[in-house]
Amino acid sequence: MEAVPRMPMIWLDLKEAGEFAFNAAVKKSAVNVPRDFEGCSTLRKYFGQLHYLQSRIPMGAEQEAAVPIAWTEIFSGKTVTHEDIKYEQACILYNLGALHSMLGAMDKRVSEECAAGAFTYLRDHFPHSYSVDMSHQILNLNINLMLGQAQECLLEKSMLDNRKSFLVARISAQVVDYYKEACRALENSETASLLGKIQKDWKKLVQMKIYYFAAVAHLHMGKQAEEQQKFGERVIYFQSALDKLNEAIKLAKGQPETVQEALRFTMDVIGGKYNSAKKDNDFIYHEAVPALDTLQSVKGAPLVKALPVNPTDPAVTGPDIFAKLVPMAAHEASSLYSEEKAKLLRDVMAKIEAKNEVLDQFMDSMQLDPETVDNLDMYSHIPPVLMEKCAALSVRPDTVKNLVQSMQVLSGVFTDVEASLKEIRDLLEEDEAQERKLQELLGKVPSPQGSPPLPPPPSPGLAEVSKECSKYLELHEKASFTNTELHKAMNLHIGNLRLLSGPLEQVRATLPSPTLTEDDKQVLQNLKRILGKVQEMRDQRTSLEQQLREMIQKDDITTSLVTTDRSEMKKLFEEQLKKYDQIKVYLEQNLAAQENVLKALTDANVKYAAVRKALAEVEHKWNTTVQTLVASYEAYEDLMKKSQEGKDFYTDLEGKAAKLLEKARAACQAAEANRQQILEKELKKQPPPRPTAPKPALQKKLPELDAVGLDAGDLPPPGSLVLPELPEELRSL
């Protein structure tokens, strides 16, 4: 896998700056940066100096020195204006992350930790209401994409460095985890509406990568099993890797050639590994192959982190050009308080994310979708795809009739050809029998002892007829199989075509539907109610988290810090942080309720198991019936085409067989005439009959004649007694 071609990465566009009443030279250098690491350095310096500026001059929202600041929103292209210096900071921070993503997607594949760090800082320290491209959902998506791609870079390096298989598997599994988080964000309806057209492209690429890197993870787990001589485990891991890679290939349709090349390369590696492992285990090791779900799952190893952004780091921002405007002590105290708020947010988010992870894993294992757990509505109507086929057949009422007539004509021509070829074969066999009989009588075709007589060589005319007949019989035999299969296919589909051509009520009655008891319905309602509670818990948790973030972002105590003594700063921080206690209590209650909700859901799911199985079976039958009916409709044109081809073939063969039959008749007549001539010649060669004396046997019979009252005078004269010498068979001819 060291030489596997690289997968493409997603990179973000930079925002374009508009109006901002600031020094023109400074503004120009900050918004028109080069697309390289020098541009990243410029953005960091500008961001840091803006931070110093906003802490000294009242340029925030609704403050005395606030001025209009305009930037273009990425997805819509609209210009968004706010009178808030933090809006300028937020846009610069977004561009810093976007520029790092652009550089990370280049061939050198440098780490994208800085990109994730910029977006994380933007999410945690700035309002999300400035513009759509800086909303909480979009920033979460960007963070997971950048972390996933950074982990992907680390995976490439690990494979090039030939790291241990288990470590490579864990790194690859973490890539999958990051991309799953990104995929969840992309599947969110609100996020999809914000992204617009690019949502489908990103989602398709991310879903393909999830299966691809899952395959890579299981490939290296199989390698580890091989190193540990666990040959049964090796087979199942390689098989799982092959299955996941096939899923990735399905999702890769429409992707660039670099993706296809990477998939082909990986297929060669995994396919070769699987075939070799299976063959070795089947013929050498004979180890039992365990089920994949009985093996320990691969736990991801998050080895990349979003590096925090520090706007006050002089090594990054350079010297503070506004140092003389505001007391540095107040600025430092404000930074310390911001860090206290950030610490509080991190602690709360760690608890939320841990609970969310448990909830997501639990729901994934249950495979319960609130929207489809009760899909009874689908059985109340004919699906659109089937309605479309019924409508198409309603304007073609002769569909079934045409198909039946076509097959009847084909059967008739088929029968005629078969009869002609049988008659030719019978003529040839009869001629061969007559020829053999003649030859045996003439003593020219000796028969081996205890075996049938050898066939005499046919005449040149009959030999040609026999050769042609054999060729036509071979063609007929091959075509007969095709004709039989065609009739089977017609019989398979003709009933469905009649059904689709008939009333819609009959079609609807053909589709299976579930039959639920009152208890079953009660089980369904209870499960749906608890699933609603789960969603309610999720929504409340998200809302409380958003409220906490907004409170932290709006919490600015700079004015208080200026008038507070340094020795009282810690006490002031403690007093200010108490405002978050109430929302923290609500969050704790929400998190604590999760265990009870999941227990109730588990119990409800146990009761739902039988109903679920019944519904799944009915749904499978319903889908199978729909697919069968659609397949019959789609097979009609193919049946008509093949039927016409069969008619054309047999019409041509019928003409040839008829000509050959006439030829066979003529050749047989000629052969028969030839045999008559030979027979006549043989008869002429026989000597004339001559008188003979009575044989001793006859003499012995004379006394017997006397005994019955006959004497020798009653017998013909000796010269008139003729004993034919020809055999009875020859005389009959």
TrEMBL record:
The keyword Transmembrane does not apply. GO terms for cellular component: endosome. It holds the Pfam family BRO1. Gene3D superfamilies: alix/aip1 in complex with the ypdl late domain, alix/aip1 like domains. PROSITE patterns: BRO1 (PS51180). InterPro entries: ALIX_V_dom, BRO1_dom, BRO1_sf. It is found in: Cytoplasm; Endosome. Residues 449-460 have a biased composition (Pro residues). GO terms for biological process: early endosome to late endosome transport; endocytic recycling; protein transport to vacuole involved in ubiquitin-dependent protein catabolic process via the multivesicular body sorting pathway. The keyword Cytoplasm applies. Residues 527-554 form a coiled coil. Keywords: Coiled coil, Cytoplasm, Endosome. Residues 443-463, 678-733 are annotated as: Disordered. Residues 27-359 form the BRO1 domain. PANTHER family: PCD6 INTERACTING PROTEIN-RELATED, TYROSINE-PROTEIN PHOSPHATASE NON-RECEPTOR TYPE 23. This is PTN23 phosphatase. It comes from Syrrhaptes paradoxus (Pallas's sandgrouse).
